[in-house]
UniProtKB/TrEMBL annotation:
It comes from the Bacteria. Residues 117-191 form the HTH crp-type domain. The keyword Coiled coil does not apply. It comes from Albidovulum aquaemixtae. This is Transcriptional activatory protein AadR. GO terms for cellular component: cytosol. Keywords: DNA-binding, Transcription, Transcription regulation. The gene is aadR.
């Protein structure tokens, strides 16, 4: 399977919405952001691409989102012809089908987060999503690093940046998390955070 590695600087785009899709991209390092612009000009963050993810799967031969790097990143580009002609590269075709199924699952997770009523539940669900996907264990601590800013999180979960910040403050007050620094969250009580994410627990205040 021929592939071409590409280095990306923060803010650099790989593709734009409606571009012809000639390649798909596997994230080797760093974090990508996939977005769409609504008719009224508002941005919706559709997904984040983490190491191991494949992004850029086409629909009718075109990209359905735009994609840029949040951090310095490396991706490998592979032609997406095997989606239409599986016999040309059966191994790559199987890889792309698996990536498509993963994308459906991640979108389902996103719908669950977006559909929650409480802001605290949305933010908790987002943190659990990151914990499960890219969380780190260090000295019996569960770390979640946030390469994205509060606006990115807000545009992903359907809140304002201010509400995201207030919800994080609320979760800190409830001793579910604490901040090691503005971009590193220590999950102090994963079970309670997960229960809140699943809507099984109420907090004293509601910031929605």
């Amino acid at each position: 399977m021929h592939r071409l590695n590409r280095q990306l600087a923060p803010g650099q785009h790989i593709f734009f919405e409606s571009d012809p899709a000639r390649f798909v991209y596997k994230v080797r390092s760093g974090v990508l952001r996939l977005t769409r612009t609504q008719r009224d000009g508002r941005r919706q963050v559709i997904a984040f691409g983490f190491p191991g993810d494949i992004v850029g799967l086409p629909c009718a031969g075109r990209h359905t989102t735009e994609c840029d790097a949040i951090t310095s990143a490396e991706v490998s580009a592979r032609r997406c012809d095997p989606l239409d002609h599986p016999e040309s590269d059966p191994k790559l075709h199987s890889l792309l089908v698996t990536a498509a199924l993963d994308e459906i699952r991640f979108l389902q997770d996103h719908f669950l987060i977006f559909g929650r009523r409480r802001a605290s539940e949305k933010v908790a669900a987002f943190l659990i999503l990151l914990l499960d996907r890219v969380g780190e264990a260090a000295d019996d601590r569960h770390l979640v690093r946030l390469p994205m800013n509060r606006s990115d999180i807000a545009d992903y979960v359907g809140l304002t940046p201010e509400t995201v910040s207030r919800s994080i403050t609320q979760l800190r007050a409830e001793k579910m998390i604490k901040l090691d620094d503005p971009n590193t969250i220590i999950v102090r009580d994963p079970d309670r955070l997960r229960a809140l994410a699943e809507g099984a627990q109420e907090l004293v205040a509601d910031w929605s």
